[in-house]
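User: Hey, quick favor. My workstation is busy. Could you predict this chain's structure for me?
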Amino acid sequence: MGKPAGPICKAKQPSRATQGSAVLSPPLKPWTPAEVREAFVRFRKANPEPKGELEHLNPYTLLVAVVLSAQATDAGVNKATRELFAIADTPARMLALGEEKVRDFIKTIGLYRTKARNIIALSEKLLAEFDGEVPHSRAGIESLPGAGRKTANVVLNMAFGEHTMAVDTHVFRVANRTGMAPGKTPLDVELGLERVIPDQFMLHAHHWLILHGRYTCLARSPRCAVCPINDLCRWPEKTLEGSRS
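Assistant: No problem, here it is.
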């Protein structure tokens, strides 16, 4: 962004309903196809090849890392898995390590006991039903212990290049706050984003949105002044620095 063309101004807060009645926010004006395209053109210009921040060696370690990342930070998962993946980068090696030792490696991660149990169970199922390979299908991945739709979308996208949209807390916030694809559930947002984002951007779209939510469109004190799409954003509480140059 260039230098601000004017002072910071804050949009007026929507008026509250009278006390005792529901407070209803007016629906945000939908984005036009041209605006959605422009947003992703800007994301691509700023970061042409975005990467996920979970460290992994192959589709299997990616799967394990994503399962471990539930209610945990990527940085925390990476710290725990660097040593784990050095000795257990396949389902067979993970099983040979055993659940107790897996727990020791990941004990700094939230819910580590349940997650260690799931890692062993999903490794057993991969060997028994998928020849030790991560399945290249949503249904196959979702059938694994500890793996849900978001896990499947991440693995299909990062390991196999599928145009999937993984909706985590960051993507959910960005889609709703900006008004790009509002929805009450992660599935609503996922399907909404898939409808509006041009196919040419879909390979990297969820990474751009995750990174945007993680570093710019923060849950608290969002950095609207440096946001590359602040002029497109529909959030009524955003702050603006003049006009884009």
